[in-house]
Amino acid sequence: MTDLAINGGIPYRDTNGSPFPQRTPYGEREIELVTEAIRSQSLFRFGGGMVPEFETRFAEMYGVDFAIGSTSGTAALHVAMGAINPNPGDEVITGPITDMGTIIPILFQNAIPVFADTNPDTYTMDPEDVERLITPRTRAIIAIHLFGNSCDMNAIMEIAEKHKIPVIEDCSQSHLATYENRLVGTIGDIGCFSFQQSKHMSTGDGGMTVTSNPDYAETMRLFADKGYNRGNAEGHRMYRFLGINYRMTELHAAVGLAQLDKVQNTVSRRRCLGDRLSATISGCPGVIPAPVTPGGTHSYWLYPLRVVGPTADKFAKALSAEGIAASAGYIGKPIFRCAAPLAEKLTYGDSSFPFDSPYTDRNITYSEDLCPVTQEILDQLVVISFNENYTDGDIDDIGGAIQKVAAAISA
Ligand SMILES: Cc1ncc(COP(=O)(O)O)c(C=O)c1O
User: Fold this and answer.
1) How far is the CA of 11 from the centre of ligand 1 (A)?
2) Spatial contact of 115 and 94, defined as CB atoms under 8 Å apart
3) From the CA of 60, how far away is ligand 1's center (Å)?
4) What share of the chain is helix, strand, coil (3-state, %, to 5)?
5) Ligand 1 centroid to 103 CA: how many Å?
6) Which residues line ligand 1 (CB under 6 A)?
7) Residue 2 has what pLDDT?
8) Is the dihedral of CA 220, 223, 227, 231 positive or negative?
9) Residue 404 Cα, ligand 1 centroid: separation in angstroms?
10) Distance 101 CA to ligand 1 centre (A)
11) pLDDT (mean) for 360-367
12) For 272-311, what is each residue's pLDDT tens digit?
């Protein structure tokens, strides 16, 4: 049997002689539009034309009525929470495998995050657990489409409709992924996107919130602009409620407009490559390829490989030695154990608000064993990065290296 590179064998891929391609998300069109924005002498969204154009074209691409640009995916989710407008101590059900950007907006609106465990077949939130967690204080469900893979949206929407709870879709990792031929972000009440550097389309940082609900749209526009009612007829400034400044600038919209022309190709290419990798490694001992939720198409922000038997850490180290960029565990622990604002309730001075407050009688503890399936999956995950510039041959090398490591470890 071929020796593993980690034990002194020859790496499957010689990344010195044959490096994997880098991402090259930006090009001449971005430069042209940014230059145009600067030449216009107005980089403020009220006055320039690019932010409104970006919002309109994004809404058109998704087939929704409204899109509100902002400064990050976290901001986009906060804008959505602004529309939900929970009372302190209200609860929002979400998933535990995510970035802190999903959780921060819940806490900043003084609501309590409640975590549904993970479906082991999709790595997204388990709808049965969502329903179990609903209480009279539940104000929203945030469904996270993880790594590019859709949640089981039929089940989630059925539960939400039954209990009359709005659904926010966190599509930060899943641009143009679909579920039953509908784009994720357009199935629930509100969809949120991140344009952070690593995402399928990027403005370095940036975000977008979409909806077809005019009341939500109106509130979200105001929320992202300090609650400032710019059309106030009374002749003085009017701030209608507590909002924040998440206004997107013309520079970000200039890049975003250029990115809109590329994102379809980026996602198609990633989809081909991800599906190719899954086909290459199917049947490989002890390795579970990236799941695709039934009815969905994946957009592969990252490729989540699951290993059963060896630890994810051992597998990832062996794979890295073979020349394949791999890391164990994604976030390592469920988000409520990674984040002191949850694990230690470190919020708002030393108040622990809203957890320890008269606004809730619920004594939530974000303990290690809260979501056992989630921890098991994180313990077995190896995430592999690739990008749309990879060739089929690059993917075949990744697949070959996975087979080599799996065979050696299982032997
Ligand atoms: C699932 C998810 N939600 C929210 C965010 C926050 O996005 P941003 O970093 O743009 O604020 C991210 C970022 O990676 C994410 O992956």
Assistant:
1) 34
2) yes
3) 23
4) 35, 15, 50
5) 10
6) 72-74, 98-99, 101-102, 144, 170, 172-173, 194, 196, 205, 207
7) 67
8) negative
9) 33
10) 5
11) 93
12) 999 999 999 999 999 999 999 999 999 999 999 999 988 9
pTM score above 0.90: yes
Report which of 169, 219, 164 is spatially closest to residue 189, judged by C-alpha positions.
Answer: 169
Please tell me the total number of residues recorded for the chain in this structure.
411
| Measured distance between the N- and C-terminal CA atoms of the chain, rounded to whole angstroms | 9
- Omega before residue 354 within 30° of 0, cis: yes
Pair 50, 203: CB distance under 8 Å: no
Give the integer Cα–Cα distance in Å for 98 and 314.
Answer: 23
β-strands 178-179, 138-144 pairing: unpaired
What number does the ligand 1 atom closest to the CA of 195 have?
10
Q: Residue 300: what pLDDT? A: 98
* 241-272: pLDDT as tens digits: 999 999 999 999 999 999 999 999 999 999 99
Pocket test for ligand 1, best of 70, 71, 74 (most atoms within 8 A of CB): 74
- Which residue has tokens 């003084």? 110
Which domains can be identified in the chain, with CATH numbers?
5-10+263-331+375-410 (3.90.1150.10), 28-261 (3.40.640.10)
Give the pair of three-digit tokens for residue 207.
């975000």
pLDDT in tens, 124-134: 999 999 999 99
Of the candidates 116, 85, 107, the one whose C-alpha atom is nearest the C-alpha of residue 220 is 85
Q: Report the pLDDT value the prediction gives residue 411, as an integer from 0 to 100.
A: 80
Q: Quote the tokens at residue 329.
A: 């565990």
